[in-house]
Design goal:
Oligomer: single chain
CATH topology of the largest domain: Growth Hormone, Chain: A
Strand content: under 5%
Shape: globular
Order of helices and strands: HHHHHHHHHHHHHHHHHHHHHHH
Structural class: mainly alpha
Largest sheet: none
Number of domains: 3
Helix content: over 70%
CATH architecture of the largest domain: Up-down Bundle
Radius of gyration: 25 Å
Length: about 525
C-alpha cells in the first residue's frame, strides 16, 4: 500500500458504510428526481416565461440529453479526476445550476441552466453507486444496492407528486429551489466523509504518469449520437416520426445510427477510449443492462400514462393524481429493505429478478383491465403491486450486474448501467405517448363503426338522454343535439381510456418476456468471497 493511499484506506475503514450510503444517495435522489419533477409543470413554465407549451418540452429534453452525454464518460472522468473530487464537483455545480434554473428569466436561459444541471447531475449516479459498491463487502452488496434503489426507483415515483404540489401551492421555480439546501448539506457531508479506495488512488497515480490522450473524436460522436437520440424521442410523436414531411426525424435517425456505429467502432479500436464497452462482454452485465433498460421503460411509461389517465378522464388535478400514486412508494421502501436482507442471506438474485418481473407483468395486466367506473382504491392497489415488483428487481439486478466484473472496470460499467437505466425511462415515456395517441385514433374509428342513427342502441341512448335534456331546456331540437354531443363525449372518453389500457397491456407483455432473459444469467449469490476470483 502506498503512502498516499494509506490515509484514505484508514479513513474509509473507520467511516460507517451506512452513514456513507446516506451521504451519497441523498444528492443522487435529487438528481433522479429532476428527471420527472418538471414534467407536470411544463405549462406553468411556459406561461411564466411567455413561451409555447411545445417549446417548454426542451426543459426536459435538454436535461436528459446532457445526462446521456455525461453518464457513459463518467468512468473516464472519475479515473482521471478522482471519484471523490468528481462527486463533490458534481454536487456543487448541480446545486448552483439548480439555483440558476429557479431565477431564469427566459426559456432560453432555463434550457441552458438545465443543460448545466444535467451535465453535473450525470456524475452523481455512477459515483454514488461506485462508492456503495466499494464501501460494503460482497455479502452486503444487496443491502447497499437497496439503499441506492431508494434514489433510482423512488425518485421517479415521487417526482410528479412533489412537482405538482409545489407548482399548485407555490411556484414552478420551487421545483428547482428545493435542491439548494439539500445540495449544500450534501456538499459538506461528502467533503467530510467520502474518500477514494486504495485501488482508485493507485489507478489515478498511474494515469498521472501517462500523457493525457483525450479522445475528442469519441466525445464528439457521443454528443452527436445522444443529442439526436433524445431530440428524436422527445419530438418524434409531435413530428409524426418517420412520416415527418420535413425529414427532421428521419435525419436525426440516420445521424444517430451513423454516429453510434462510428463511436462503437472507434472506442473498441483505440488504446485509451473515453467510453469503455468492455463490460458488455460479460454476460451477466449485458443481460442486466437489457433488463434494467426495459424495466425502467415500463416504470416511466406507466408513471407518465397513469397521471394522464387520471387528469384527463377522472378530472384529478396534478396534486390529487400524485397523491393517488404516492402509496406505492411506501410499499416500495418496505419491500426493498426485505429484498436487501434476503440477498444478504445468500439467495440467488436471479430468482428475485424473475419474481419481480412476473409481479410487474401481473400488475400491468391488472391495470389494463381497469375501466372508467373504478374508485380511487382500485387505482392505488395495482400501482402498489407494480412498484413492489420493480422494488424486487432493482437491488438484485445491481448485484448480479457487477458480480463478475473486475473492480477496475466498475467505473465504466456503472456509467453504462446508469445510462441504459435512464434511457430506458426516456424510451418508455416516448413509446407510451406515441402508443396512447395512435391507439386512441384506432379505437375512435372502431367505436364509430356502429354508431349510426339506425342502431337501436344509439336510438335508445339519444332518446333517453334527449328527454333528460328537454326537461331542463324545453327545446326539442337543442335537446336532440345535446344528446348527440353526449354520445360523442362518451365515445371520446372510451377511446382514450382504451388507449391508456393498451399501454398497460403492452407493459405487461414486455415484463413477461423479460423473464426469459433471466435464464441467460449466471448464478448470482451475494455472499462473502462470491466474486473474489473475478476481481
Amino acid at each position: 500500500m502506498t503512502a498516499i493511499a494509506l490515509p484514505y484506506a484508514r479513513a474509509q475503514r473507520v467511516i460507517n458504510p451506512w452513514l456513507l450510503a446516506v451521504v451519497v444517495v441523498v444528492p443522487t435522489f435529487m438528481e433522479v428526481l429532476d428527471t420527472t419533477v418538471a414534467n407536470v409543470a411544463l405549462r406553468y413554465i411556459a406561461g411564466g416565461l411567455h413561451a409555447a407549451v411545445t417549446d417548454s418540452e426542451w426543459v426536459i429534453t435538454s436535461y436528459l440529453a446532457a445526462n446521456a452525454i455525461i453518464l457513459p464518460i463518467s468512468g473516464w472522468i472519475s479515473a482521471h479526476l478522482g471519484r471523490r473530487n468528481y462527486f463533490i464537483l458534481s454536487i456543487a455545480i448541480f446545486t448552483i445550476s439548480s439555483a440558476l434554473c429557479g431565477i431564469a428569466g427566459s426559456l432560453g436561459q432555463l434550457i441552458l441552466f438545465r443543460v448545466m444541471q444535467g451535465l453535473a447531475g450525470g456524475g452523481l449516479q455512477p459515483s454514488s453507486q461506485g462508492v456503495l459498491l466499494d464501501a460494503f463487502p460482497p455479502e452486503k452488496q444487496g443491502a447497499a444496492m437497496t439503499v441506492f434503489g431508494f434514489a433510482a426507483l423512488l425518485a421517479p415515483v415521487v417526482g410528479p407528486t412533489l412537482g405538482g404540489w409545489l407548482t399548485d401551492n407555490y411556484s414552478w421555480r420551487w421545483i428547482f429551489y428545493i435542491n439548494i439546501p439539500v445540495g449544500l448539506v450534501a456538499l459538506g457531508a461528502a467533503w467530510a466523509l467520502v474518500r477514494d479506495p486504495e485501488y482508485l488512488q493507485t489507478q489515478r497515480e498511474e494515469l498521472k504518469k501517462r500523457p493525457l490522450n483525450f479522445d475528442y473524436l469519441g466525445l464528439g460522436l457521443l454528443v452527436l449520437a445522444m443529442v439526436c437520440w433524445e431530440v428524436g424521442l422527445s419530438k418524434g410523436q409531435e413530428w409524426d416520426w418517420m412520416g415527418d414531411p420535413f425529414w427532421r426525424v428521419q435525419t436525426l435517425a440516420i445521424v444517430f445510427v451513423a454516429a453510434l456505429g462510428a463511436l462503437i467502432y472507434r472506442e473498441t479500436h483505440i488504446a485509451a477510449p473515453v467510453i469503455s464497452f468492455r463490460p458488455l462482454r460479460e454476460r451477466n452485465f449485458a443481460v442486466c443492462c437489457l433488463i434494467i433498460f426495459c424495466a425502467f421503460g415500463v416504470l416511466y411509461a406507466q408513471t407518465t400514462s397513469l397521471p394522464g389517465l387520471l387528469q384527463s378522464l377522472f378530472g384529478y388535478d396534478a396534486t390529487t393524481s400524485g397523491l393517488v400514486m404516492s402509496p406505492a412508494g411506501v410499499g416500495a421502501v418496505i419491500l426493498m429493505v426485505i429484498v436487501g436482507a434476503i440477498l444478504g442471506r445468500g439467495l440467488d438474485a436471479r430468482w428475485l429478478i424473475a419474481a419481480g418481473l412476473l409481479t410487474v407483468a401481473a400488475a400491468s395486466y391488472w391495470m389494463a383491465h381497469m375501466n372508467l367506473n373504478i374508485s380511487v382504491r382500485q387505482v392505488i392497489w395495482p400501482r402498489v403491486v407494480l412498484i413492489a415488483g420493480l422494488s424486487m428487481i432493482f437491488a438484485p439486478l445491481s448485484v448480479a450486474a457487477y458480480m463478475y466484473l473486475p473492480k477496475e472496470m466498475r467505473g465504466a460499467a456503472v456509467g453504462l448501467f446508469s445510462l441504459l437505466r435512464n434511457e430506458g425511462g426516456s424510451v418508455g415515456t416516448s413509446v407510451a405517448q406515441t402508443l396512447q395517441e395512435r391507439r386512441e385514433q384506432f379505437h375512435l374509428l372502431r367505436l364509430n363503426e356502429f354508431l349510426d342513427r339506425l342502431n337501436p342502441a344509439v336510438q335508445s341512448f339519444t332518446g333517453q338522454t334527449g328527454a333528460i335534456f328537454y326537461h331542463f331546456t324545453g327545446d326539442a331540437m337543442k335537446s336532440g343535439q345535446m344528446a348527440i354531443e353526449a354520445l360523442q363525449s362518451a365515445r371520446l372518453r372510451q377511446a382514450s381510456s382504451l388507449a391508456y389500457f393498451d399501454v398497460f397491456w403492452t407493459c405487461s407483455i414486455l415484463a413477461g418476456v423479460l423473464v426469459l432473459l433471466v435464464l441467460l444469467m449466471k448464478r448470482s449469490v451475494a455472499e462473502k468471497g462470491a466474486h473474489v476470483a473475478a476481481e
